[in-house]
Amino acid sequence: MFLSQAIRKTTKILNVRHPFERLLSAYRDKLENTLAGRENFQEEYGTIIVQNYRDPKNPVIRANQVIKMKDAPEPAGVEPTFREFIDYVINADLGRYHSDDHWIPYYQYCTPCSLNYDFINKVETLWQDQVFTLRKLKLNQKIKPHWRNSYGRSNASRIYYSQLNKAMIYKLYDKFKLDFEMFDYSPNAYFNYATSEF
After folding, report:
1. Three-class SS string for the chain?
2. Which residues is 77 bridged to in the sheet?
3. How many CB atoms lie within 10 A of CB 149?
4. Is the distance from CB of 16 to CB of 123 less than 8 angstroms?
5. How far apart are CA 2 and CA 99, in angstroms?
6. d(Cα 53, Cα 88) in Å, to the nearest integer?
């Protein structure tokens, strides 16, 4: 009883991001390079992904499968590729196990259908959304947002998603369809990135 009253009285804010950009960001930050301090993700997810989705005839990562971030060490070669990660996401039951809050669909993780959020901010328009939210909450004189990153589709998106075919992108879209619909995102550009139908 006390918890439900507290939730009703609390201002609830949800920050969302284009589902495909969110997946790419999670992959690059958590799984692409184990030498960048992400060993726990490699142990929990990377090893399983490689065992289940890497072609044993092609065990070496090709140079075009990785975009090295500035000042980051070269990948060790045991990490999953983006394509392997997407195969895993498509096939895993993300709501039950083998999932992480960095890539679980919002509708399963943040329960927007059962929790009445007061504000839903998009990462792509976060600067304007933060200003609006703070003004509405009358906090704009107390809290000053600092903008450090720019978000949106980048050349990296085109490079990574071009490693997938349209069938994979469609399956991925289907898996995150509710997130796309609830937050008014489109997968169309990503279908254009795909290199082939199958």
Report:
1. CHHHHHHHHCCCEEEECCHHHHHHHHHHHHHCCHHHCCHHHHHHHHHHHHHHHCCCCCCCCCHHHCCCCCCCCCCCCCCCCHHHHHHHHHHCCCCCCCCCCCCCCHHHHCCCCCCCCCEEEEHHHHHHHHHHHHHHCCCCCCCCCCCCCCCCCCHHHHHHHCCCCHHHHHHHHHHCHHHHHHCCCCCHHHHHHCCCCC
2. none
3. 6
4. yes
5. 30
6. 7
Distance, in Å, from the CA atom of 160 to the CA atom of 157, rounded to the nearest integer, reads 5
Structure token digits, residue 103? 């890539």
Q: What is the distance between the alpha carbons of residues 198 and 194, in angstroms, rounded to a whole number?
A: 9
Residue 120 β-bridge partners: 14
- The answer, as to whether pTM is greater than 0.85, is no
What are 175-198's pLDDT values in tens digits? 999 999 999 999 999 999 988 776
Q: Report how far residue 147's alpha carbon sits from residue 159's, in angstroms, rounded to the nearest whole number.
A: 26
Judged against a pLDDT cut of 90, whether residue 155 lies above it is answered with no
Cβ count within 10 A of residue 88: 21
pLDDT in tens, 62-108: 655 666 666 666 666 778 889 999 999 999 887 766 678 788 888 88
